[in-house]
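Quick one: EGF-like domain-containing protein from Dissostichus mawsoni, structure tokens please.
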Amino acid sequence: MERQRTGTCALSLHSLWSGGQLEQRNKRNARLGLALGSPLLLFANRRDVRLVDAEGVRGESAIVVSDLEDAAAVDFLYSEGLIFWTDVSEEAIKQTHWNQSSNCKTTSYILRVVFILLLNEDLLTKASPSSYILTLCMFCVAALKEALGTGQTVVVSGLDSPDGLACDWLGRKLYWTDSETNRIEVANLDGTSRKVLFWMDLDQPRAIALNPAQRKVIVVTEIYWPNGLTIDLVEQKLETVVEGTLTHPFALTLSEETLYWTDWQTRSIHACNKNSGDKTREILSGIYSPMDIQVLEAYRQPNILTPCSDSNGGCSHLCLLSPVQPFYSCACPTGVQLKPDGKTCKPGAEQVLLLARRTDLRRISLDLPDFTDIVLQVDDIRHAIAIDYDPVEGYVYWTDDEVRAIRRSNIDGSNAMMLVTTEINHPDGIAVDWVARNLYWTDTGTDRIEVTRLNGTSRKILISENLDEPRAIVLDPVNGFMYWTDWGEHPKIERAHLDGTERLVLLNSSLGWPNGLAIDHAAGKLYWGDAKTDKIEVINVDGSNRHILLEDKLPHIFGFTLLGDYIYWTDWQRRSIERVHKVTAVREIIIDQLPDLMGLKATKVTETYGTNGCAEDNGGCSHLCFWCRQAVNCACPMGMELLSDLQTCVVPEAFLLFTNRDNIRSISLGTNSNDVAIPLTGVKEASALDFDVSERRIYWTDIQAKTISRAYMNGSSVEHVIEFGLDYPEGMAVDWMGRNIYWADTGTNRIEVARLDGQYRQVLVCKDLDNPRSLDNPRSLALDPANGFMYWTEWGGRLG
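--- reply ---
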């Protein structure tokens, strides 16, 4: 409806003239330079995108979309009223719908027609013509300042420096350049099926222009700083502006016989004749920061039938126009291969490299040679370190050192969730048992190797002794072994069964910081990268036949993985991902100058290797299944015990808790189970110990930390109940009926009480200086809540 009203208004103004009157007045107007057919200019202004009529109200422009960060390149799809722009700060391409029914051309056009009308009717010669003009100008200025766009939508994200943008209005594609990654990419208008077209022999590509009718893409690079580029669709010529001939031209566009360009230094838009260069004039000045510019007119995007017009050319994804027969080709999203039919894309990448950076996760297809990294859309990644993948369900698993958690998501980043969030300190290594469906990790803070099911349940400590700085961990589910590195004071590489038993040191000499570890299942070899010796070495899985694969330009290896014939690694100092052929030792760079690189995993997306007895029905185990010694070994998570059937785990009816200085352990009294450590962090020297049956919480005193703490039986929710005013709390007891906790402190010579959460603390008995026999070094403490009595022992200091 709005478009009809605007059109009617313009028609009414035209109808004021007729026949020879119109021709006569047009001649007069032409002499005055009042052209009625001037184009609209669309330009990026960093913090907004604007429209200006090339012959409109001087100094006025209309805002299409505002509140932008750093708009640079701009283009449009006239047939659908879409305007696109790149934002180099937000590293994205965005779009808005242009409200064509309320544009500045119509407004300015009305003003100029009325101005001509007044002029031709000699109204301007009257005494007070200014009131007419002022009223009309105020109306136009108000209209010009209205935002013409309807919001903004992200079309493509995860870019680095998208400096150039061009819309293929026939093929309905977006093309853009990235001067940081030195790439040219293409995608559908909605950002889907994104593909890298060029990634080699480019030096900071900037401006890009399309000629879909001739099926050509034209790009300029930073050599001699050619910033602007446009195409003369009539004469099929390329127009450029090169810095040096003018003050600082940036971008340019063409409308029939006139060139328009933006200038950084003068902060303005200029025009001249495209052939002679004369008739130079200023269109708009005082612009905040003029960037790219386009003529926003329908004739700049003529509608022509192409091979892609009919059913997308038969392509399953991208149909790209070409200047050679058959004048188009089918293409696939980045990293995905085209099937032999030349039309259909495979479901996705078949081999990928998963990368953990500090604040994001990335996926790199290994199927194609461009090695484009795609950021997974996962929120709240603070400090990702280790990463692994499950090819059965398609989940990516990673550790986060700052959040202190283990997380997972789909391979595209969707459905992210927390798996393990308690008693995680510095989880440096992670490994997926894709057969038994278990997840292993190392923690350099707790100095443990632990395991859970892949969904985060059934947690169990496997190894907690004689570990200094455990880091990388890899698994061999077929043969039932796990391998890990330790870069502590006495660095080593070890092996154990998947249940943590029969531990064996494979190597403990000539090691520095063995950060990375990878296993070649087919060849039976272990490879590792050492960040201190700056070498990549290899041994057999039994520890024999050690030799060096690579020892040149490896300043700081961290992440390390193997797939097929290649070993991949990240290097902190070189800020690179590289790979080397494990036989020929030929190396190449995959990604260069990418900071904050951490762990990585090369994997096949859906194909798995090997099987064992845990693959079917979890080996018959109710909780954890380990494949050890070529047999199924069922195990239980913390706080549970295995029944005599050696398959079923239950909560024990009775158990014994005891302290062993820096850890607390439990032994079931109903079975012959070995004692197991409860995964508690921060225990320095535990002394007294008690248990609250109703909440299944352990309470203990720590005479070195001078605290009283509590946690659940599975080790979660560790918290200090009392952490001030203690000296040597050796005795402690829980009143399970009154929900209070009592303790005896030999240092302060006091017996105190508080609620189980530490509130309402009160001294019950203390040493009386006037009565030395009142309390003398109280130690052990016991309660009889049913009868209301408290008992304690005193070491005392007197003889007899």
